[in-house]
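PROTEIN DATA CARD
Card holder: RNA polymerase sigma factor
Chain length: 182
Origin: Microvirga aerilata
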Amino acid sequence: MSIDGDIRNSMLKATPNLRAFAISLTNNVDRADDLVQETLMRAIANIDRFQPGTNMQAWLFTILRNLFHSEYRKRRREVEDADGKYAAALSVQPDQLPHLDFEDLQKALARLPHDQREALLLVGASGFSYEQAAEICGCAVGTIKSRVNRARNRLAELMHFTDMDEDIGPDRVTLSVMHAVA
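Structure generated from the sequence above:
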């Protein structure tokens, strides 16, 4: 792949400023150099997205900033565990039970009247407020609340739940549908 000489020169001219910005973000020269290199590689790979006549340095800074934040979010979820003690203490719920519970939930949802299922899914699963769900459905807020309540009760009946917290278990999707905040 060949890059236009003017674009190449613009990229090279912006590199010292990119490096300074990367150092200020990472507080680590080696990490900053890696970030600048990754930025330039991404820019070259996506050079067709750059609009000639616009600010190359701003485009490169945007790429660098987005890369930094993506990596920051990724690293924030990572746990340092050099000796393996943390990993040894972890346990995982079996995969098949939530899958089977979800299938049961789908079957029970399919048996609900359309208006109740729609209200329950908007409020419980999609996270809309009662007011937003009422606006979407074109009805009163009280109607949505009533439909959601009837749907939850009927769903619990169809799934043979007696004590919600014990019957449902750790599946957060099911819990959110059955116990959505009013």
